[in-house]
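Q: Here's a chain of 157 amino acids. Please give me its 3D structure as tokens.
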Amino acid sequence: MKTFGSVSTEMEIQSSAREAWALYGAVGLTVITVPKYLAAVDIVEGDGGEGSIAKLTPLSGSPYYEKFTKVDDKHMVKETEITEGAFLDLGFTLYRIRFENIPTGKHSCITRTTIEWEVKEEYVSNSTRVSILPSINIANDIEAYLLANEKKDEDCN
């Protein structure tokens, strides 16, 4: 038997959905996550688009692999699933993260992050390790990055 779960958060970003998507989509997120959250992100299969596999090396701990199961540039949706290591080593049979950018105005959007998981019944206590907090931190970092670079662009004009 397996236990299923999900957690989601929405955050308003003061930047256009397309600008935020440039970071969330494909491998653009590495601009934010390396070196603050990860030591390295290496695409080991594919070109960073749908079907690609990335090796993520945390600042501490063992590397893990995730597959980009969906990269939809039109609807600004990206889904990844861990395929080796990390949560799978803790009895999870599925660990999926979905990022969605939803336009709300010319210079604003909602970033929705959803984590879905399945865990074997004997490891259900490990479900408490699932946290949306890193996604909230990354969304805040993306907004700060976009606002800082928008200011730099204005200074150059």
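Q: Can you summarize the key feature?
A: The longest strand covers residues 92-105.
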